[in-house]
Amino acid sequence: MKTLHKSNTRGHANHGWLESYHSFSFASYYNPERMNFGLLRVLNDDRVNQGMGFGTHPHENMEIISIPLEGDLEHKDSMGNTTVIKQGDVQVMSAGTGIYHSEYNKNKDKLTKFLQIWIIPNKQNVTPRYDQITLDLKDRHNKLQQILSPNAEDAGVWIYQDAWFHMGKFDLGFKTNYHLKKDGNGVYVFVLTGDVKIDEQVLNQRDALGLTDINSFTLEALTQDAEILLIEVPMLIS
Protein backbone atom coordinates (compact mmCIF):
# COMPACT_ATOMS: atom_id res chain seq x y z
CA MET A 1 0.00 0.00 0.00
CA LYS A 2 1.21 3.53 -0.82
CA THR A 3 0.32 6.77 0.98
CA LEU A 4 1.42 9.94 -0.82
CA HIS A 5 1.90 13.15 1.17
CA LYS A 6 2.67 16.06 -1.16
CA SER A 7 4.69 18.89 0.36
CA ASN A 8 1.89 21.43 0.02
CA THR A 9 -0.59 19.27 1.93
CA ARG A 10 1.35 19.45 5.21
CA GLY A 11 0.19 21.51 8.14
CA HIS A 12 1.84 24.92 8.39
CA ALA A 13 2.46 27.27 11.29
CA ASN A 14 4.32 30.58 11.12
CA HIS A 15 5.04 32.14 14.51
CA GLY A 16 7.46 34.71 13.11
CA TRP A 17 10.54 33.37 14.88
CA LEU A 18 9.51 29.79 14.02
CA GLU A 19 8.10 28.41 10.79
CA SER A 20 7.10 24.78 10.89
CA TYR A 21 5.60 22.29 8.46
CA HIS A 22 3.86 19.31 10.05
CA SER A 23 3.62 15.98 8.25
CA PHE A 24 1.26 14.78 10.98
CA SER A 25 -1.21 16.43 13.37
CA PHE A 26 0.68 18.63 15.81
CA ALA A 27 -0.20 21.57 18.06
CA SER A 28 -2.88 23.65 16.30
CA TYR A 29 -2.74 21.52 13.14
CA TYR A 30 -5.24 18.67 13.34
CA ASN A 31 -6.06 16.31 10.51
CA PRO A 32 -7.69 13.00 11.53
CA GLU A 33 -6.21 11.38 8.41
CA ARG A 34 -2.71 12.54 9.36
CA MET A 35 -2.26 11.36 12.94
CA ASN A 36 0.74 9.12 12.35
CA PHE A 37 2.41 6.60 10.09
CA GLY A 38 2.60 3.49 12.22
CA LEU A 39 4.68 4.45 15.26
CA LEU A 40 6.04 7.58 13.54
CA ARG A 41 4.01 10.22 15.37
CA VAL A 42 5.68 13.53 14.47
CA LEU A 43 7.79 14.79 11.58
CA ASN A 44 8.20 18.56 11.84
CA ASP A 45 10.23 20.53 9.30
CA ASP A 46 11.31 23.56 11.36
CA ARG A 47 13.02 26.87 10.63
CA VAL A 48 14.20 28.89 13.64
CA ASN A 49 15.21 32.54 13.27
CA GLN A 50 18.46 34.03 14.53
CA GLY A 51 18.70 34.27 18.31
CA MET A 52 15.36 32.51 18.86
CA GLY A 53 14.25 29.09 20.06
CA PHE A 54 12.07 26.83 22.16
CA GLY A 55 12.00 27.62 25.87
CA THR A 56 12.20 24.87 28.49
CA HIS A 57 9.34 22.39 28.05
CA PRO A 58 8.59 18.78 29.08
CA HIS A 59 8.39 15.44 27.27
CA GLU A 60 7.70 11.91 28.46
CA ASN A 61 7.49 8.40 26.99
CA MET A 62 8.59 9.38 23.50
CA GLU A 63 11.72 8.84 21.41
CA ILE A 64 12.68 12.29 20.08
CA ILE A 65 15.15 12.64 17.23
CA SER A 66 16.54 15.93 15.92
CA ILE A 67 18.37 16.16 12.58
CA PRO A 68 19.88 19.58 11.75
CA LEU A 69 19.79 20.46 8.05
CA GLU A 70 21.31 23.94 8.19
CA GLY A 71 22.86 26.06 10.94
CA ASP A 72 23.05 24.74 14.49
CA LEU A 73 20.94 24.44 17.62
CA GLU A 74 21.95 24.69 21.26
CA HIS A 75 20.32 22.08 23.51
CA LYS A 76 19.98 22.15 27.31
CA ASP A 77 18.10 19.58 29.39
CA SER A 78 17.22 18.50 32.90
CA MET A 79 19.79 15.68 32.71
CA GLY A 80 22.55 18.31 32.73
CA ASN A 81 23.42 18.20 29.03
CA THR A 82 24.40 21.40 27.25
CA THR A 83 25.35 20.68 23.64
CA VAL A 84 25.23 22.15 20.14
CA ILE A 85 23.97 20.10 17.21
CA LYS A 86 24.78 21.01 13.62
CA GLN A 87 24.44 19.60 10.11
CA GLY A 88 25.80 16.06 10.10
CA ASP A 89 24.78 15.45 13.71
CA VAL A 90 21.91 13.31 14.95
CA GLN A 91 20.48 13.82 18.42
CA VAL A 92 18.21 11.44 20.30
CA MET A 93 16.38 11.66 23.60
CA SER A 94 14.47 8.84 25.24
CA ALA A 95 12.07 10.94 27.31
CA GLY A 96 10.86 7.99 29.41
CA THR A 97 9.72 9.04 32.88
CA GLY A 98 10.09 12.70 31.93
CA ILE A 99 12.60 15.33 30.86
CA TYR A 100 12.70 19.09 30.36
CA HIS A 101 14.74 20.69 27.60
CA SER A 102 15.21 23.85 25.55
CA GLU A 103 16.52 24.44 22.02
CA TYR A 104 17.88 27.74 20.71
CA ASN A 105 19.48 29.12 17.59
CA LYS A 106 22.18 31.17 19.28
CA ASN A 107 23.56 32.49 15.98
CA LYS A 108 22.92 36.15 15.20
CA ASP A 109 23.59 35.84 11.47
CA LYS A 110 21.95 32.67 10.15
CA LEU A 111 18.82 30.55 10.29
CA THR A 112 18.64 27.07 11.74
CA LYS A 113 16.67 24.40 9.91
CA PHE A 114 16.09 20.98 11.42
CA LEU A 115 13.77 17.99 11.48
CA GLN A 116 12.09 17.06 14.76
CA ILE A 117 10.83 13.48 14.79
CA TRP A 118 8.87 11.59 17.45
CA ILE A 119 8.68 7.79 17.57
CA ILE A 120 6.37 5.98 19.98
CA PRO A 121 8.64 3.71 22.09
CA ASN A 122 8.27 0.00 22.83
CA LYS A 123 9.12 0.52 26.52
CA GLN A 124 7.35 2.92 28.86
CA ASN A 125 8.80 4.88 31.79
CA VAL A 126 12.45 4.16 31.06
CA THR A 127 15.18 6.24 32.65
CA PRO A 128 15.63 9.29 30.40
CA ARG A 129 18.72 9.24 28.19
CA TYR A 130 20.48 11.52 25.74
CA ASP A 131 22.85 10.79 22.88
CA GLN A 132 24.38 12.74 20.02
CA ILE A 133 26.71 11.68 17.23
CA THR A 134 28.46 13.32 14.29
CA LEU A 135 28.29 11.43 11.00
CA ASP A 136 30.53 11.65 7.96
CA LEU A 137 28.37 13.17 5.21
CA LYS A 138 30.53 11.48 2.55
CA ASP A 139 29.18 8.13 3.75
CA ARG A 140 25.73 8.95 2.36
CA HIS A 141 26.94 9.81 -1.16
CA ASN A 142 25.25 7.30 -3.49
CA LYS A 143 24.42 5.03 -0.58
CA LEU A 144 21.96 4.79 2.29
CA GLN A 145 23.80 5.74 5.49
CA GLN A 146 22.23 4.25 8.60
CA ILE A 147 21.76 6.94 11.24
CA LEU A 148 19.48 5.18 13.75
CA SER A 149 18.55 1.66 14.79
CA PRO A 150 17.27 -0.34 17.80
CA ASN A 151 20.80 -1.56 18.54
CA ALA A 152 23.42 0.37 20.51
CA GLU A 153 26.23 -1.51 18.77
CA ASP A 154 25.05 -0.60 15.25
CA ALA A 155 25.87 2.52 13.26
CA GLY A 156 24.10 5.69 14.34
CA VAL A 157 22.10 6.42 17.48
CA TRP A 158 19.66 3.93 18.98
CA ILE A 159 16.13 4.15 20.36
CA TYR A 160 13.61 1.99 22.22
CA GLN A 161 11.84 0.82 19.08
CA ASP A 162 12.40 -1.52 16.12
CA ALA A 163 13.03 1.42 13.81
CA TRP A 164 15.80 2.22 11.35
CA PHE A 165 16.62 5.60 9.79
CA HIS A 166 18.81 6.11 6.73
CA MET A 167 19.89 9.20 4.81
CA GLY A 168 21.25 9.34 1.29
CA LYS A 169 22.41 11.95 -1.22
CA PHE A 170 22.52 10.77 -4.82
CA ASP A 171 23.84 11.67 -8.23
CA LEU A 172 21.40 11.99 -11.11
CA GLY A 173 20.35 8.52 -12.32
CA PHE A 174 21.61 6.65 -9.26
CA LYS A 175 19.49 3.65 -8.34
CA THR A 176 19.40 1.49 -5.25
CA ASN A 177 17.16 -1.03 -3.50
CA TYR A 178 16.06 -0.91 0.13
CA HIS A 179 15.11 -4.11 1.94
CA LEU A 180 13.06 -3.73 5.11
CA LYS A 181 14.76 -4.87 8.29
CA LYS A 182 11.73 -6.37 10.02
CA ASP A 183 8.53 -8.05 8.85
CA GLY A 184 5.46 -5.93 9.45
CA ASN A 185 7.35 -2.64 9.36
CA GLY A 186 6.52 0.18 6.97
CA VAL A 187 8.75 2.85 5.42
CA TYR A 188 8.18 6.60 5.23
CA VAL A 189 10.40 8.22 2.60
CA PHE A 190 10.83 12.00 2.97
CA VAL A 191 12.54 13.93 0.18
CA LEU A 192 14.82 16.66 1.50
CA THR A 193 16.06 18.04 -1.83
CA GLY A 194 15.57 17.26 -5.50
CA ASP A 195 13.34 14.68 -7.12
CA VAL A 196 13.33 10.89 -6.72
CA LYS A 197 11.27 7.97 -7.94
CA ILE A 198 10.14 5.21 -5.57
CA ASP A 199 9.19 2.26 -7.74
CA GLU A 200 6.94 4.18 -10.20
CA GLN A 201 5.99 7.12 -7.93
CA VAL A 202 7.77 10.43 -8.58
CA LEU A 203 8.43 12.56 -5.48
CA ASN A 204 9.55 16.18 -5.40
CA GLN A 205 11.28 18.19 -2.69
CA ARG A 206 9.58 17.77 0.71
CA ASP A 207 7.12 15.20 -0.62
CA ALA A 208 6.78 11.95 1.30
CA LEU A 209 5.63 8.44 0.52
CA GLY A 210 4.52 5.83 3.05
CA LEU A 211 4.92 2.19 2.01
CA THR A 212 3.36 -0.78 3.80
CA ASP A 213 2.95 -4.49 3.13
CA ILE A 214 6.21 -4.65 1.18
CA ASN A 215 9.61 -6.27 1.65
CA SER A 216 11.68 -3.93 -0.54
CA PHE A 217 11.48 -1.08 -3.01
CA THR A 218 13.61 0.64 -5.66
CA LEU A 219 14.75 4.25 -5.41
CA GLU A 220 16.06 6.33 -8.32
CA ALA A 221 17.44 9.89 -8.24
CA LEU A 222 15.83 12.07 -10.93
CA THR A 223 17.98 15.14 -10.18
CA GLN A 224 21.57 15.77 -9.14
CA ASP A 225 22.14 15.82 -5.36
CA ALA A 226 18.71 14.41 -4.55
CA GLU A 227 18.61 13.77 -0.81
CA ILE A 228 16.22 11.66 1.25
CA LEU A 229 15.45 10.55 4.78
CA LEU A 230 14.12 7.02 5.04
CA ILE A 231 12.23 6.07 8.21
CA GLU A 232 11.37 2.39 8.79
CA VAL A 233 9.01 1.83 11.72
CA PRO A 234 6.61 -0.78 13.06
CA MET A 235 3.04 -0.17 11.96
CA LEU A 236 1.46 -1.52 15.15
CA ILE A 237 2.24 -1.02 18.84
CA SER A 238 3.68 -4.27 20.16
Task: Give a verbal description of the structure.
The protein is mainly β. It has 2 domains: 113 residues, Jelly Rolls (Sandwich); 98 residues, Jelly Rolls (Sandwich). Helices cover 0% and strands 53% of the residues. It has no helices and 22 strands. The strands form 4 sheets. Strands 1-20-17-22-15-13-14 form a 7-stranded mixed sheet, with no helix packed on it. Strands 2-3-4-11-6-9-12 form a 7-stranded antiparallel sheet, with no helix packed on it. Strand 18 and strand 19 form a beta hairpin.
Keywords for this entry:
238 residues; mainly beta; Jelly Rolls; 2 domains; seven-stranded antiparallel sheet; 22 strands; 0% helix
The helicity comes to: under 10%
Terminal CA distance: 21 Å
DSSP summary: helix tally: 0
Largest sheet: 7 strands, mixed
Query: Could you tell me the radius of gyration in angstroms?
Result: 17 Å
